[in-house]
Amino acid sequence: MIDSIENLINDVVNALYADPIYLVLGVIISGLLIFSLVKKLIRIAMYLSAVAILYIGYLYFTGAPVESVVDGASKLIEDGKQVIEKKMNDFNPSQGQ
Fold first, then answer.
1. Which residues contact 60 (CB under 8 A, 6 or more apart)?
2. Which residue from 72, 37, 80, 33 is spatially nearest to 56, judged by alpha carbons?
3. Backbone φ/ψ region at 47: left (φ over 0), alpha (ψ -120 to 50), beta
4. Are 87 and 73 in contact (CB under 8 A)?
5. Distance of alpha carbon 32 from alpha carbon 16, whole angstroms
6. pLDDT by 10-residue block (mean), the chain, 97 residues
7. What is the DSSP letter of 97?
8. Do 31 and 41 form a contact (C-beta atoms < 8 A)?
9. DSSP state, 65?
10. What is the Cα–Cα distance from 55 to 73, expressed in whole angstroms?
11. CA 79, CA 88: separation in Å to the nearest integer?
12. Which spans in 1-97 are helix H?
């Protein structure tokens, strides 16, 4: 199954290199896909930022300590960075074969 997928990808790449029109179309489609992905990620980040700002505003107006929330978010971000760094260091592409 993996061989057939590999052959299919090789055939597509060969077709793209063989005809410049296909190559231009492939580049345009890839650019549109990347643009769409980035646009969605930015939209999600904006929504999360708006929710975080509203939550901090709510805490401020109710008199709850905002510092603990900010400190907790900072700790969560640091923990996430450490987990991602550990996973990146543990990743070895040759183990999958």
1. 66
2. 72
3. alpha
4. no
5. 17
6. 84 86 89 95 93 86 80 84 86 56
7. -
8. no
9. -
10. 12
11. 14
12. 2-18, 20-62, 66-90
- Provide the whole-model pTM: 0.54
Cβ neighbours of residue 11 closer than 8 Å, sequence gap 6 or more: none
CB 7 within 8 A of CB 13: no
Tokens of 85: 């760094």
What is the C-alpha to C-alpha distance for residues 18 and 23, in angstroms, rounded to an integer? 8
CA 59 to chain centre: 30
Cα–Cα dist 30/35, whole Å: 9
